[in-house]
Every structure is written in structure tokens, then in C-alpha cells.
Amino acid sequence: MVQKLPAKDIQHTKRGYVFRKFAEFCNRTDLHGFKYIVMEDLNIVERSCWAISVFVSMIVAVMFVVTAYRWYARNPVVTVIESTQGAIWDVPFPAVTVCDINVISKKAARSLSNNLTLPLHITPDYVFKALKLIPLLFLGTIKEKDKEQLKILQDVIDTNGITLKTLFTTLSPTSSCDNLIQRCMWKNIIYRCDQLFQQVTIKIGTCCAFNYFAINDLDSQNLDLLQMSTPRRVASCGYQTALTVLLKVDVDDYYSSGIATQGILVFIDNAYNIPDQDSPARMVSPSTEVLIALAPERTYSTSGIKAFTPEQRQCYFHNEVTLANFKQYSFHNCMVLQRILTIKRECGCVPWFFPEKDGYRVCNFRDIDCVETLPERLTMKDLVNMPSSMRCLPECEHYDYPLEVAMGKLSGKVPLNGLPFFENVNIENSSVLNIFFNDLVSTRYRRDVYLNWQNILAAFGGLLSLMLGFTFISGIDFVIFFMFRIVYDCTLTNIWEGKTETSEGKIIKVEEKNLSKISSKREWKTRY
């Protein structure tokens, strides 16, 4: 009969089996240090030191791998410079918005105040002085005396049926773009300025914009505007290869300005961004020629970026989010909209310059107390984290226009007969603005996935190789050893032991029968 071993002996046998397999693995693997743990030429102290070193290396390797993975998980997307030789025709030309620093025309204010229907206790001079204060509604801090004047002015314009937008547009020096822009040239071809520029309203007043695509269904009275489905592009670089305009400044008509100077404010930004206080801006002084050279930059995203959520990649694609009346999402437009929504939520109205179509009341001079204290109550953090169905994030793909400015005094004594752009124009108190690409090439950035299998393999493989000498062959060797030396051996042993136990009784009976037969034969031989 087969006797079963005691439990203690079985446990001792299993432990010995594990030790034997571990020693076998140490002898065959090429991982650093393992073979010294079981090397017979070394004493127990040396082998113990090697065992401790290998164990510590394994712990440190695991820590490094976990730390690297957490870093990759926190930063799954990276932006790198792909090329500094990108073609400029791949980058659309920016929008150019020109605004007279003078917000209120003195002539227009005098004319309006003389033609209004006024109460008996209000004089045209009182209205004329009050009109000087109207830009302060969204641009500054107002004295209590001035607030009272503006509230009385609000009653006057309500009596005459004048809306706030009509008031600002009528009083603006740019009530028509022809008042601000004398001559326009695009790609060395002279156009009528109303074919290139359209009137837009922004926070600082009424302006004229070129290549402007920010707002859907822009209410423009300019029927001569050359309509384009996408922003314009250029294929050349240098002076007078893109946009050149002759700007007219009426220094005698200045009546109300938010900046203590005279001239033109120029905003240069993405064609789909609405000009605002945080848009890139430059100044054009009277009687100067200004050259603005652009060095365009393009950032695009690979297809793998779309697999991440906006929170993981920290950006939106243009087709993922729709912003009110904006044609295209951008972080800039989102922040502008958040400010508008904040005014709407806190004061119950929207600014006159925002093209709102939801029927909300336009803020007037009676709301001046709420509008004035709003910046003090809200910070940029409040705007970003304000209760809303959408969080403002940067765009995954966008264009930027770093610029350099050069300027000089515009002299009327220089002979200009050979330049058709200056024919039959008076350049007194005028300025020339040139905006063009500085070079034929642009910088192209790529936003790519950092947490992919190539980077993980390189990073984790490098760490494991540094700490343990781990290679791809080492991994295959471990799999083969585990599958064939441990799992396979254990499976065969269990099957063999099961067969032995089931057939044990039969074998013993056969042996007993054979023994009885042999003994009977021996007895028969003895008798006979």
C-alpha cells in the first residue's frame, strides 16, 4: 500500500520545491545579481548581500515605474516644436481692427445735443457735457455727480427714443469707416475701403475690422463688403505684400478718450476672436508710418488627442463647443462670453456692444452702480470657475501672431509721385499702417499624446534595465520558465498523483493473484 505523507512533510516538500525552482531560475536568468544569490563559490554572507541588493533594486525599480506612470497620467499631452519651416500660406492672415482712441466726436456730440427734445430744466450744453461721460459706463470709475448726470441723460435719450447702441454709434468718430480710413491696399491692389473693412462694436467703442469672422450673422450695413467664406491668406512676405491702409486722425475733434494720447489703436488677433481688452494691441500715432511684421505660429493636434476627454487634454476642439453667436470656439471668446454672462447674472442686462439675440435688456446708465462695482466683486478665478455648463479651456488647434513694430515720422516733403497709393490724398495728420508676414516660413507646433505605448516602453524599459538589467529576452525567459518549469511540472505531477491513487487497489489485487498462483504452482511441483 501507498502511505500518505504527514501535512508537515508535505509543506516541507512544497517549500523545498519552491527553493529548487528559485535556484534554477537564478542560475538561468540574465537579470543582474540573481546568479550570485545561489552561486556555490560564495559564502552565505556574500550571497545574503547579493540577495538584499537585488531585493532593494526591485523595490526601487517598482517605485520609479509607478512614479513615472503617475507623471505620464497627469501629463498625457505634450506640445513640441515640429518645424520652423512651415509655409505661411498654411496660416490665415489675422483680423485687423482699427479704433480711434477718441470715443466721442465733439462735432457729433454738439450736433446731437442741439437736435434733441429736452425737458425745460435741461439745456443743450448740459447734454453736451454729459455726452462726454458716456464711455465711462464700462471703462472706468465714475464720481457720484457724474452718475447723476448720466442718469438724467438716460431719461433724455429714452424720451427721444434713442437706444444706447445708436447713441454710441452716432457719436463715434467711426460712425462710418470712411471717416477713419482714407485708402486701402491688399496684396498690392488698391480697393475701396468699404470693400475690405466692416464696422464692429467692441468694449472701447465703434471700430473698423478687416478679415473679421468672429460673430455669426454680423449686422453690417456695408453692402459693398467683399464677402469671404474663410479668412484671407497670403503667399508672400515683406513690406506692402499684405495689408496697407492710410488712417486719418482728426485731432481737433477729440472730446472723450480713455487713453491720454491721440492716434489709432490697432488690434491684431485670430480672425475668429472678438477684439477685447486682452487682445494684442499696438498704437499708431498721427503723422507716422508703422510697419508691423508678423511671425505666425500654428499649433495643431494629432488624431490620438481626441481619444482623451477635454479635462485630460486640457483643451477643446473647435467643433466640440458652441459659444452663443461666435462662429468658432476659442479661449479668448469663452472668457469674453463669461464676462458678459457675469454682467447678465449680476446686473440683469447685457452690454450694448455685445451682439445678444436672446432678448435680454441692454445695460443703460441706470445700471451704472452695479456695472461699476462688478470688477471689485469678481476676480479672474471667479470668471474661470463661475457656475456654468462649460469650463473655459484653451483651443487644441490655434494660430498665434507674435509681432515686431517699426515706425517713422511721415513726412510730406518726401516725393511720393511714383507711389499710386498716395496719389490725390492729403497726408496731413494721417498715418500709414503696414501689416505683413515677416518671412516665408512659420513655426509649427504639434500637440501629441505623451502617454502612448512607445513612450511607456522607452521609459519603463530604461528604468527596469537600469535597476535590474531587464531586457525583452529576459521577459521571454521568465514567461517560458514560469509556463514550462512551474505550471507544466505542477500540472503533470497532480495528474500523475491522481492516476496513481485511483489505480492503487487494482495493482495490489493483481499482485496478490499472481502470488497465489505462484504459490499454488510451487505446491503442485512439490507434490509431484
TrEMBL record:
<dbReference type="InterPro" id="IPR001873">
    <property type="entry name" value="ENaC"/>
</dbReference>
<keyword id="KW-0813">Transport</keyword>
<keyword id="KW-0915">Sodium</keyword>
<feature type="transmembrane region" description="Helical">
    <location>
        <begin position="456"/>
        <end position="484"/>
    </location>
</feature>
<keyword id="KW-0406">Ion transport</keyword>
<keyword id="KW-0472">Membrane</keyword>
<keyword id="KW-0894">Sodium channel</keyword>
<protein>
    <recommendedName>
        <fullName>Sodium channel protein Nach</fullName>
    </recommendedName>
</protein>
<feature type="transmembrane region" description="Helical">
    <location>
        <begin position="49"/>
        <end position="72"/>
    </location>
</feature>
<keyword id="KW-0407">Ion channel</keyword>
<dbReference type="Pfam" id="PF00858">
    <property type="entry name" value="ASC"/>
</dbReference>
<keyword id="KW-1133">Transmembrane helix</keyword>
<comment type="similarity">
    <text>Belongs to the amiloride-sensitive sodium channel (TC 1.A.6) family.</text>
</comment>
<keyword id="KW-0739">Sodium transport</keyword>
<dbReference type="GO" id="GO:0015280">
    <property type="term" value="F:ligand-gated sodium channel activity"/>
</dbReference>
<keyword id="KW-0812">Transmembrane</keyword>
<dbReference type="GO" id="GO:0005886">
    <property type="term" value="C:plasma membrane"/>
</dbReference>
